[in-house]
Amino acid sequence: MEIRIGITNSGRELSFESSQSTAEIEKLIADALDSGKSYFTVSDDKGKMYIVPTAGLAYVEIGSEETRRIGFVG
Questions:
Q1: Is residue 16 assigned to a domain?
Q2: For 9, which DSSP code?
Q3: pTM > 0.90: yes or no
């Protein structure tokens, strides 16, 4: 699934594909925000790990687990 994370005062967003479920990502971020942690970590399908500061978190967009369709719509 695609995950996009916006960081305040940054013109770019962090965007990557992850094999974690929507519920797992949501719980990870909610736990970090609720507990007052200064960061949380997520990993992508390729094994890269991202450390995201909670203080600069603007938004998190979690895409659906549905595969993308290829072709023309008629």
A1: yes
A2: T
A3: no
Looking up residue 52, the CATH number of its domain turns out to be 2.30.30
What Å distances lie between residue 33 and 9, 42, 64, CA to CA? Answer: 19, 14, 22
Has residue 72 been placed in a domain? no
* Helix ranges (DSSP H) in the chain: 22-35
Instruction: Give the tens place of pLDDT for each residue, 35-67.
Output: 999 999 999 989 999 999 999 899 999 986 555
How distant is the alpha carbon of residue 46 from its chain centre? 14
In angstroms and rounded to an integer, the radius of gyration of the C-alpha atoms of the chain is 14
Here the tokens at position 6 are 């916006």
| Contact status, residue 26 vs residue 15, Cβ threshold 8 Å | no
